């Protein structure tokens, strides 16, 4: 049962949200732009996508505040016959969006490596053997995010295998791009079940939690990609639903889900989510249950930080080329090092706010403020572990590179929505839901803008990849100078390196280039081709590259990538723009 703590006027929520967001956005702009504390990819995306979107949201919040209070549209009970079809529709939209918004292209190296691993898992392998003829060029073909185990003979993704294994399963079933939407739907169903359990007498609050999740651009846009974060959202919510179910079956199944979730791509994410609930159990004096879940965290470290690397070393060979291992000490040390060098809470949390429902954070703050503190100390407030998890996800605001919103806090969108539902239940009247509908309208406008800007950002890279992929050369060398993150175009077709074999020119020696030009048909992809396609400019250089390019010109090995010639008259006519 949810007790009331008093009615909070929607006008105050809206004005507080507008003022707080304006102050945060101003601080972000001053720190990252005015005083230029490093112009990272996140800042580039902030200026292109989030900053203008949030300026509009602040204005709309302020304008809507005087009229935000009151009755809105009546909501039916959140039963399965209504909720499940909505979830399925959202999953179908995410699947279609991979092709419409992302043009069947995974823009980041993280996503490409996940798909690369899915491709060899689909074939029943633990790694992809490097063909003997390409071994001298293996690092130019797989520039980063590769596993060190057996790296002289195998290409293996650096990430843990579960996310790629799920994609491989859906690939065998027909389409790997169904993995993200299916996980999204599973997570939303679990969120619905948890909300019903926590707020059984407030169906309006259940709807608040659901509608905030349904309207999260970060949730459904990320589900269009191969990122592991959709799996973290889904498995976190499934774990929470099973844990609240309780009993031997509930807790046992939750432990299994936690172990699986830790293997998605990096094992430290689930412990951040689960640890606050162990504290909550201890406050309730549920010693046995708390001990079980603590042992689950130990099992996670043993399985994924110890046994899995040992298995890879046994199957593929000792680590070579790069770091000796990625053990527990390495992981913890890396996290602390990144907190010192790559901690960017302003820009990352700004992106998080922009890509979720505009009311999610204000209502979640209400949920935290409405906690009964004495009950909290006795472990009677579920809001406590939810809030601690959200705090951990936000405080560890490490630089993420690409991401639609802040993906490192993706697994905590569900807890944010639940906190918002709890805040609504304690601080709002059941039938006065106009502020929810106004917030959904503002969020919809922001989402339209963000989707448009995302498509505009991805399109040049997708077009560049299609051009490279269409080449009939044996090898395509990419000169990344002059373009933003052009190195991420070094990839195969559907996760499989092949013809053309794409390489990063900056990672080759002059002798290697000579050998390639002598033995293979080689084409070059550089700024003269990717700049007209719209790839953003990057002013940077690499020592020695000018001399290497000059040598390639001397030996006539700098022909640009050319699409294949049309094979039929109709194709030629289409290529000419139907000029006749």
Task: Give a brief rundown of this model.
This is MFS transporter. The protein is mainly alpha-helical.
Described by strand count, sense and barrel closure, the largest sheet is: 3 strands, parallel
Beta-strand share of residues: under 5%
- Global outline: globular
The number of strands is 5
- The number of domains: 2
User: What's the gyration radius in Å?
Assistant: 25 Å
Strand order of the largest sheet: 4-3-5
Secondary-structure element order, N to C: HHHHEHEHHHHHHHHHHHHHHHEEHEHHH
Keywords: Membrane, Transmembrane, Transmembrane helix
Protein name: MFS transporter
Question: How does the SSE layout of this entry go?
Answer:
Blueprint: H1 10-34, H2 41-64, H3 80-100, H4 109-122, E1 128-129, H5 138-141, E2 154-155, H6 162-173, H7 179-198, H8 203-214, H9 217-222, H10 229-245, H11 247-262, H12 269-283, H13 287-316, H14 328-341, H15 345-354, H16 360-369, H17 373-377, H18 383-395, H19 413-427, H20 434-469, E3 475-478, E4 501-504, H21 510-519, E5 522-525, H22 527-530, H23 545-554, H24 569-575
Helix pairs in contact: 1-2, 2-15, 2-20, 3-7, 4-6, 7-8, 7-10, 7-19, 8-19, 10-11, 11-12, 11-13, 12-13, 12-18, 16-19, 18-19
